[in-house]
Design a protein that fits this description.
4-stranded antiparallel β-sheet; 109 residues; 0% helix; Jelly Rolls; mainly beta
């Protein structure tokens, strides 16, 4: 669990071109901070998807819920709004959204 989910980010640059995956079922926009941090804010429609990671990632669920299985794990873990999970760089994770659209903030590095 993490603290309160941010409602907005101030004084940032937003990349207007969307990151679109899985035929538009996963969509995000990149947010760049002055200190060099990078996040994406997006949504995932119901379905099952697999993502590879180059850098470490922290996925914070801001709305909805999902099941996640990370590389090397056998069991799925459930995450809901207000919770987050970390994925090491050079790895992968599968995410299953069942029901409503899930929204997230992904932090890199």
């Amino acid at each position: 669990m993490r603290g309160k989910t941010p409602e907005q980010f101030d004084d940032v640059t937003v990349i207007c071109k969307a990151n679109i995956f899985f035929e538009g079922k996963v969509v995000s926009h990149t947010v760049m901070f002055k200190d060099g941090r990078k996040k994406t804010i997006g949504l995932i429609q119901p379905g099952s998807y697999k993502f590879n990671t180059d850098a470490p990632e922290e996925m914070e669920i801001t709305s909805g819920s999902c099941l996640v299985k990370q590389g090397g794990q056998r069991q799925w873990s459930t995450y809901s709004a207000g919770e987050c999970f970390q994925v090491p760089g050079g790895s992968w994770f599968e995410i299953l959204v069942d029901g409503n659209i899930m929204e997230y903030i992904c932090s890199f590095g």
